[in-house]
Amino acid sequence: MVMVRVRVILTLTLVYLALMANLAPLNVLMGLLVATAVTFLLPGGNHDWQMSWRSWPAANWAFVRYVIMLVIDLVVSGVQVARIVLSPKMSIRPGIIAIDSQTSSDLATAFSAHAITLTPGELVVEIDENGIMYTHCLDVEQAAIALAAAQQERRELLEKIFS
Fold it and tell me: Whole-model pTM?
């Protein structure tokens, strides 16, 4: 459990320093203090994922790729929703589709559902005990294809992050 906290503290400190863009010693110390406080505020106990030092660089790189993918999805989906809303002819077919999370971790399923919900025009309304995410979409036909492909990529990245 200690190694998990150390890895989380180091990762959060790196994120803090990247956001602050200031490597002054006091800022590094502040980043360590904030990261340590955050890790102790998080619930401890049994996690369904374990972290190892060997997988740390690959997991962090997968996390960076995941964030980039999420930002791109947000921008593209935002433009698509704006186009739908501003179009004089609202050619949408709203509905709910089922997406299998295909993850071995509840945490990875939660991250995946969060990423889907963040993108405009899509909202996870329920996750069943088998990891099936029921997602409301503005256009069922377009979303079914796009979400399945995006979920596959998300799953691969999340498995690397939480392995």
Answer: 0.62
